[in-house]
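Table S2 (continued). Query chain:
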Amino acid sequence: MHVSTGVIKIRAQQADRFNASNGFGPGKQIWGYSEVRPKAFIFWWLYRAHTQSDVSDYYAEKPLIIWLQGGPGASSSGYGNFEEIGPLDRMLKPREHSWVKDYNVLFVDSPVGSGFSYAEDHSLLARNSTMVVYDLIEFLKQFYHTISETTTHDWQRNVPLYIASESYGGRIAVEFAYALSKEIQANVMHCKLGGLFLGSAWLSPLDSIAAWPNYLSGLGYLDESGRERIERRVAAVRERMAQRRPGMALDGWHGLQQAIVQETGGINCYNVLKPTVKDIPPIEVESDEVLEYGETLWWYSDTGPPQVGALHSSLERLMRGPVSHMLGIANKPPWGSQRTAVFDALSDDFLQPSTKTVEALLNETAIELVLVSGQLDLITCLPGTFAWMNRLFQNRTDGNLRPREPLTVDGMDDTIEGYRTAYTERFTHYTILRAGHMVPADNPSAMAHILREHIGRF
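Corresponding output:
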């Protein structure tokens, strides 16, 4: 069934098999494009909650989670779906801890140009977070209108909404949530926004990179002279940002990345305990992993992507091949073809902080914020995260409600999976053990526990 409403065209089908009329994979799915500005399109893909595929209205009882990937330029429909939280992994095997089992999950390829989203001209790509958020607000208005018509269920008023994100997606998530809260307060929108899940959030980039030298030195990846060389590069980036020269700062950030790769022999910045290699690819060569996640950050592995046949040997081939054909969108621009342009367009925005927006959310809204950090993540390493959190909360009167406590998960033999600190009634930070930048992929049982703890709490 095809449904057309205004500028949105969607297909809603029961998707129990891999075929072009039913979506891709198990469960009920609805997907489509929203024209958020003339000639600028956001792709979205909704998986309705399904524990039992024959329970047709099970989804109506469950919250809606919007998933925003990082980058900027990474794809929610691709990486977030098949590598982290969707019903199938990249090898097309069922995922044990898929979020779709318990929640309606909406993968949004944002900003425009990420994943299957596209602009007819690169001049239409967002240049700052304000424009990215504008597009998301416009998308959400159209989505609620269309999904309610398609399912005859008022999702906006009746289904609780949460926003989950990763990396740079966390910066967009807090700005999006703040803008959406203003729309709700003005009675322009009527959704029930309950909270944010901020995974490895790139909320204070300068704090993160300032912590890299000592973090790497403490782990044994840098000697004293190497640490000093990296510190000088960090200082140069911070100086350029202080001078309000973000373009030059970003150039320095790229140089900082390459210096760390050279000093460490090819560290895996997404998870520092994963393998490194001695032969480092030239700067102009992108590995499959870099292409798939969409970032310019480095991920050099000695194993490469899983081999699941020539067609599925990379996420890009899967998305541009079977997925696009089965969703009926193979005639659109190829998945991921504009990701580099997305990053370039947002280059001046990339190193900007959003910690003041975090504070505004705490002061002006009732939204709960849950920040999740991986113990083994270099990109948003724990010392950098603690630096901005300590500044944010040092003078607050609502204080720390309870001391840091171990996190255990039912059925895991009382193994400590991490630690929880409640900074206020509505701000909780989790440190997750045995996890890097992609916590849902590295420690899915801990992430599932966090969702259960906080969804529906307020």
